[in-house]
Amino acid sequence: MFLGSTRTATAKHMTCIPLMFHRHDTLVSRYVLRSRYLPDDSLVVLLRDQLRYTRLKAGLSQNAMYLSLPNPAPDYDSVIRALFRDYYQAYFDRQREVLASSGKKVLLRACRPCTFRPDPILYLPMSTTARSRLVRWRTGSFTAMARVECPCQDFGALVSRGHFLKCRAIPAELFDSLPVAPPGVNRLDHAISSLPTTAKAGPPKFWPDLLAILWYIDTLCHPSKFIPEDPSPGSSWSARPGRND
Questions:
Q1: Which residues contact 101 (CB under 8 A, 6 or more apart)?
Q2: Which of 54, 118, 140, 203 has the fewest CB atoms within 10 Å, measured from its CB?
Q3: What sign does the CA torsion over 100, 11, 118, 207 have?
Q4: Across the strands, what pairs with 149?
Q5: Which of 218, 52, 205 is nearest to 132 (CA)?
Q6: pTM of the entire structure?
Q7: Mean pLDDT of the region 182-209
Q8: Contact in structure between 23 and 13 (CB atoms under 8 Å)
Q9: Spatial CA neighbour of 19 closest among 123, 120, 121, 115
Q10: Is 220 left (phi over 0), alpha (psi -120 to 50) or beta?
């Protein structure tokens, strides 16, 4: 399962840092595969053939990644890397289904399912403040603080991811341009996941409204601070030279 706090697990997934057990299994599998090319008189080969029981053999019997490799294993490193990548992606997809049925790790399930590409919000062209708000929304840094009342006109409404979708302090027309989310999926999460993976594709039409919504959320979560409004949200991407319209 996914270890660490919700923020840590989400940040690792966004930056394509695999879980420790996966990194361990990958290294063990690679070392074993490389041992096929050692000379017959090398110590590792002699011990492997002479000893009936070794910790390595015991570990391989429990290494699901190594056991998933075809027999015989491919010789090309690029093919092996692809097999390792597909194995971890399949594992992550299975765990997402388990988490969905249990209702746990909401932030992690809200991210893109791809485990081998960083989240586009980390590299798409935008201002520093816009990127900060997108990352804070993904990792729950906006709402993971103490449960406090929202300074909007809904008396008693607490600051939460779900409340912001209907908060009176955020103009409702900003949400109209966002793509319609599937049932049970937060509309802001779905909009962020719908962003293109390359800057050349150009910003979607809802890009300025998405950034404006996040600015409102930032002000609601920090009512005592003055947070200047961006006069032209998303302009750093839309005005980027050389992009394809």
A1: none
A2: 54
A3: positive
A4: 158
A5: 218
A6: 0.83
A7: 94
A8: no
A9: 115
A10: alpha
Average pLDDT in the chain: 86
Q: Which two tokens stand for residue 24?
A: 């361990």
CB contact at 8 A, 194 and 121: no
In this structure, what are the phi and psi dihedrals at residue 178, rounded to the nearest 5 degrees?
-70, 150
Give the phi and the psi of residue 191 in degrees, each rounded to 5.
Answer: -65, -40
Tell me, what's the pLDDT at 233? 84
Distances (CA, A) of 237 to 18, 119, 120, 187: 30, 16, 13, 22
Helix axis angle, 207-221 relative to 128-139, nearest 10°? Answer: 70
Task: Name residue 218's amino acid.
Answer: D
Mean pLDDT of 164-181: 93
How far from 223 is each of 1, 27, 99, 169, CA to CA, in Å?
A: 37, 49, 34, 12
Token reading at 173: 């027309």
Q: HEC profile for the chain?
A: CCCCCHHHHHHHHHCCCCCHHHHHHHHHHHHHHHHHHCCCCCHHHHHHHHCCCCHHHHHHCCCHHHHCCCCCCCCCHHHHHHHHHHHHHHHHHHHHHHHHHHCCCHHHHHCCCCCCCCCHHHCCCCCHHHHHHHHHHHHCCCCCCCCCECCCCCCCCECCCCHHHCCCCCCHHHHHCCCCCCCCCCHHHHHHHCCCCCHHHCCCCCHHHHHHHHHHHHHHHCCCCCCCCCCCCCHHHHCCCCCCC
CB atoms within 10 A of CB 45: 14
